[in-house]
Fold:
Amino acid sequence: MTADRATGQAGMLPDAVYQRLIELILSNELPPDSRVNLYQVARQLDVSPTPVREALSRLDDDGLVVKSPLKGYRTTPVLDVKELDDLFDLRLLLEPVAAQKAAENGSSEALETLVEEAGAFPRAPAGDDAADYASFCRHDGQLHALIAQASGNTAIARSLARTHFHLHAFRLGYEESAGQATLDEHVRIAAAVARRDADGAADAMRAHLLASRERLLPLARRP
Ligand SMILES: [Zn+2]
Structure:
């Protein structure tokens, strides 16, 4: 891949178009519950409609847009309080046991990768660069996915992946202090998993999910 293909607008790779669309959604440039004009987005990103159509189809799988037969694509509404609370109930069932099993069964390579990912973001992003939030959102999702994968329980890993939780959570809003608390909690979980402290890992994950629910519910209650 040449630098030109990775960054050049006309040659933008399908995955880069997908990531740009996520940035537009997370930054509200494509607001919730509104029409997405495929051709307008293609013009804005200076690409042909084909990669935009592909990206929209991926975003449809993620639950960030929906396609209606004659009207094209719309962004989905943000999660309401009940939907968010339900997702946390599900995560509380899946993820503490995933952390416990990752500590018990994870390969040393998997645990090393997890610790690296936990250290990849020493500071929560501040400022108004949408790309920073998109990469922070990816990091958050990736950390949880790595724990689920390290657990060796593919049913848990798949169920968790299907929720696309982090994409939805980051649409509710972002605060630097909440971002920093998230990072500190991630480091504690990864450390417990890495020292193979199964109970400590489960407890740290449960504490993270409960704290994260307290941080996010007020955002979902906002009118
Ligand atoms: Zn997290």
